[in-house]
Amino acid sequence: MTDREISAAQLKIKEWYARYGRDNLPWRMTDDPYHIYLSEVMLQQTQVKTVLERYYFPFLKKFPTLKALGDAPLDEVLKMWEGLGYYNRARNLHKTAQTLIGQAQGAAPTLPTEIDELIKLPGIGKNTAHAVAAFAFKQPVPVMEANVKRILCRLFLLKSPNDKHLWEYAYRLVDKNNPFDYNQAMMDIGATICLPKKPECGECPLEEICNGKKDPEHYPVKKSRKVPVREQNIQLHIYDDKLSLTQRTGKFLHRLWGFESVEMPQCATRHIGMVTHTYTHFKLVCNVFAYYETEPEQEHYFSVSEIKKLAISKVDEKIIKLYLHTISGE
DNA sequence: AACCCGTGGAT
DNA sequence: TATCCAAGGGT
User: Average pLDDT, stretch A259-269?
Assistant: First the structure.
């Protein structure tokens, strides 16, 4: 594209954004870098609707500042993240807040304004660093996430480009006079018009210059993924109407409370049902067994109301639900 | 570079 | 119901 064509496209984008942009997103209406940073992390691989309706406001109410976040116990942060998934994000958020508190030496902690400093912080990759720089600090840099990626693939007929290539296109197109509006507009166009399936090219401000408008769904090529099934036996240790839960230590669902799997359930257990849960890379099928103990054999036992205070993953929530359903039918 | 890491919206 | 995939990052 020539410079003239790029300028024309930027003008179209700007005009479209003024009329159709999503102007009610709270992280667009604040200047607080911490709020913008939090939204960017929450929105990683997560839809706007989920963050907006269930997580953004409660989290900020509980942790209004970087200082409040870093000073809080990690388990409280995880509890506010419960159900949002990719829990490493919560851990890295907490770690980053603590790092910045340390660097502030008693003053109020602040986020760095430069991309090369932002990207050193855990949980901030190239895109999030660019997003914070553009949205919180008005720097003339592009973002390059799922929406922008799809638009670029269609504009320039890219089937499976690498990120380096995509960043080159993104830098060429960004409106350096209006990086905030430009980037927000690109994400809105991707989220509302340039959809993965059945994009509405007739409504798109970039239709004239788009090379992929004839067969947009061919760009980019979608990769199929197969989801292997894993079977597990879950043995509930029950003592005095309380359940034994442990805090996970591995990479998967790290630090969340839940039930451990066993090779073989002990004798004197009762099969109370099955629970399935589909993750991105595998499907879990759990056979759940109840084991009633006459004296405590595990470390921690929790009543139902005590469990509600712990951060628990969705599959363990399903197991608890099955257990409650079982005992209510007795 | 390929794989791991969660959950739910949308169709 | 099954499938895709979302404001990605870490390893």
Answer: 90
Q: Does residue A82 form part of some domain?
A: yes
- The stretch A59-67 carries a mean pLDDT of 98
* Residue A264: DSSP 8-state: S
Q: CA angle, A140 as apex, A207 and A24 as ends, to 5°? A: 65
The answer to whether A30 CB sits below 7 Å from nucleic acid chain B is no
DSSP code at position A194: S
Q: Tell me the residue type at A172.
A: R
* Mean pLDDT for the stretch of residues A192-220: 96
Helix, strand, coil percent values for chain A (each to nearest 5): 45, 15, 40
Q: pLDDT tens digits for A280-301?
A: 999 999 999 999 999 999 899 9
The pLDDT tens digits for A24-44 are 999 999 999 999 999 999 999
Report strand pairing: A242-244 vs A301-302: antiparallel
| CATH code assigned at A65 | 1.10.340.30
Which tokens is A150 given? 């799809």
User: What pLDDT does residue A175 have?
Assistant: 98
Show which residues sit with Cβ under 7 A of nucleic chain C.
Answer: A 22, 25, 27-28, 39-40, 43-48, 86, 88, 92, 122-129, 131, 145-147, 150, 184, 187-188, 190-191, 196-197, 222, 224-225, 278, 280
CA-based nearest residue to A38, from A17, A21, A62: A62
Domain boundary among A218, A239, A255: A218
pLDDT at A237 over 90: yes
**Of A175, A192, A218, which residue sits at a domain end?**
A218
